[in-house]
Write a structure and sequence with these properties.
about 450 residues; mainly alpha; Arc Repressor Mutant, subunit A; 4 strands
C-alpha cells in the first residue's frame, strides 16, 4: 500500500520560479483581450521592439519574442483566450540557431523579465491542441499575455527614449558646429595673415576634449563635451579678436587702415590676387613663417636625437603641433600598410618609433623619395616633423601633384630650409578635411 503525497503530481524536475517571475505571474496572468482595447497583436510586438533598445534588451531576446509571436494566431489574443505557445526545446534550437543550454537559459531569462509566463504540464512537457476553429482547447508552454498588458509601460519607455535621442542628436550637432567654428576662426586668421602659434595651440585644445568620445555616448557625457567645446570656441574667438585689434592698432600707427582686409593687402609676401598660404606648392611668393622658436609637440624630444644632430641640426625650428602616432595613421591610412607593430599593444615610445619606421618605408616605396632626400629631410626638419611631412604627402590624392610626390616632398624640405614651411597650418587643414569626410 502506498500513501499519496501532495508532491506526487509535480513534474519530475519542477521549474524554479524566482520572486520577480512570481510577481509578474500574479499581475499579468489574465487574458489580453486585445479586441476590447482596439489593438492587434502586431501592434503589441511593434511597441515592445520600440522600447527594447531603451530597456537594454537585444539579440536573442528579440529573436525569441519574434519567434513566439509567429507561433500565435489572431484568435489567441481575443476574448478569454491566452496566447500560449508550446515549442519544444529542439524546435527552439533549430529555429534560433542556439544550443540546448542557451535555449534553456534564454527561456528562464524571458520569464524573469516578465515577458512571458511559464505554464508547465504535470510532466513538465510543453504541448497543446486546438479545435476545428483553431482555438486553443488545452495547452502547456509559454503565455505571452504579459506583453499585451505592458503595452502602456513599453509606450512610455519608447517615447522617453526617443525624446532623449532627439536631445542627444541636438548635442552632437552642437559639438560639430563648435569644432567647425574653431576651424573657421583659424582659417580666417590664416587668410588674413594673423595666425600665431599660440592661436593654433589654443585651437588644438579641442582634441583632448573629444578624444575617446563614443558615437553612442550618453546625454550627460555629451553635455559635458559640448559645454567644454563651446567654452573653447569662445576663447579662440576672443583671442582672434585681440589679434585683429592689435594688428589694426599697429597698422594705424604706420598707415591709416580701417579693416583687416587692408592689412591683408599690405602683406608684401603675397599678391592680392593669389590665394593665401598654398603651403607646399612651390611659388615665387613665399610667406615668412611666424612659428615660435620652440615646438609645442610632445614629441620634440625625438627631434634632438643623434640621427638629427649629426648633420648639424636644422637652421630654423619648424612649428609642429601635437600629433599622436594613432592620429598619423588615421589622417594617412596608406601608411598603415608599412606598420610592423600593433599600436594597441605597445607604449607611446614604441608607437612613435614604429610610426617613424612606417613613414620611412612609405617614403621609399610609395612616394619614391630617395635615401639622400630622406636623410636631408630628417636633418633639416627633424625625425618626427619629417614623419609628419610624409603623412601630409601620403594623405593627398595622387592626381593632386603636378609632377611626383617625391618632387612635392622635396619642395617641403626646401621651404623648411628657407624658414617658410608651415606644418601647423597644413596639419590643421588635413584634420578639418578628415573630420568633414567623417561627418558626410
Amino acid at each position: 500500500m502506498s500513501f499519496g503525497s501532495p508532491y506526487s503530481m509535480l513534474p519530475a524536475h519542477p521549474r524554479h520560479v524566482s520572486p520577480a517571475a512570481d510577481t509578474y505571474c500574479a499581475r499579468f496572468n489574465r487574458p489580453p483581450a486585445l479586441d476590447d482595447k482596439g489593438m492587434l497583436h502586431g501592434q503589441v510586438l511593434a511597441t515592445f521592439k520600440g522600447a527594447a533598445r531603451y530597456m537594454g534588451l537585444r539579440g536573442n531576446i528579440l529573436v525569441a519574442i519574434d519567434y513566439f509571436f509567429g507561433l500565435t494566431r489572431p484568435q489567441d489574443w481575443t476574448g478569454d483566450a491566452h496566447p500560449l505557445v508550446w515549442p519544444s526545446a529542439r524546435e527552439q534550437c533549430e529555429a534560433m540557431g542556439l544550443s540546448l543550454s542557451r535555449v534553456k537559459f534564454l527561456n528562464r531569462r524571458l520569464i524573469d523579465l516578465g515577458l512571458i509566463i511559464a505554464k508547465d504540464s504535470p510532466t513538465g512537457a510543453r504541448w497543446g491542441r486546438r479545435n476545428h476553429n483553431g482555438h486553443i482547447i488545452e495547452a502547456y508552454g509559454f503565455d505571452l499575455s504579459p506583453l499585451a498588458h505592458r503595452v502602456a509601460e513599453f509606450t512610455e519607455i519608447r517615447d522617453s527614449g526617443r525624446a532623449d535621442d532627439a536631445i542627444r542628436g541636438q548635442l552632437r550637432r552642437r559639438k560639430t558646429v563648435a569644432i567647425k567654428s574653431i576651424g573657421q576662426i583659424v582659417r580666417t586668421a590664416a587668410e588674413a595673415g594673423l595666425d600665431t602659434p599660440e592661436l593654433y595651440e589654443l585651437a588644438e585644445g579641442y582634441i583632448p576634449i573629444v578624444e575617446g568620445l563614443e558615437p553612442t555616448a550618453d546625454r550627460a557625457t555629451l553635455e559635458r563635451v559640448v559645454g567644454a567645446l563651446e567654452v573653447l570656441r569662445d576663447r579662440v574667438q576672443t583671442f582672434y579678436r585681440n589679434l585683429v585689434k592689435h594688428a589694426s592698432a599697429s597698422a594705424t600707427g604706420a598707415k591709416p587702415s580701417n579693416s583687416v582686409m587692408d592689412l591683408e593687402k599690405t602683406n608684401p609676401t603675397r599678391p592680392i590676387n593669389e590665394p593665401p598660404n598654398n603651403n607646399y606648392k612651390l611659388t615665387n611668393h613665399l610667406t615668412t613663417s611666424k612659428g615660435s622658436e620652440t615646438s609645442s609637440s610632445e614629441f620634440d624630444s625625438h627631434r634632438g636625437s643623434p640621427a638629427a644632430e649629426e648633420g648639424g641640426g636644422p637652421p630654423g625650428e619648424i612649428r609642429v603641433p601635437t600629433v599622436k602616432p594613432k592620429e598619423v595613421l588615421a589622417l594617412a591610412p596608406s601608411m598603415s600598410r608599412y606598420l610592423s607593430e600593433d599600436l594597441e599593444r605597445i607604449d607611446l615610445e614604441r608607437q612613435i618609433r614604429a610610426v617613424m619606421r612606417a613613414a620611412e618605408a612609405c617614403a621609399f616605396e610609395e612616394l619614391s623619395v630617395s635615401k639622400s632626400l630622406w636623410a636631408e629631410a630628417q636633418r633639416v626638419l627633424g625625425l618626427w616633423p619629417a614623419t609628419l611631412a610624409v603623412m601630409l604627402v601620403a594623405a593627398k590624392d595622387p592626381n593632386y601633384f603636378s609632377r611626383t610626390p617625391a618632387h612635392y616632398f622635396a619642395g617641403m624640405v626646401e621651404k623648411a630650409k628657407q624658414g617658410s614651411l608651415r606644418l601647423d597650418r597644413s596639419i590643421w587643414g588635413l584634420r578639418t578635411k578628415s573630420e568633414s569626410a567623417g561627418q558626410s
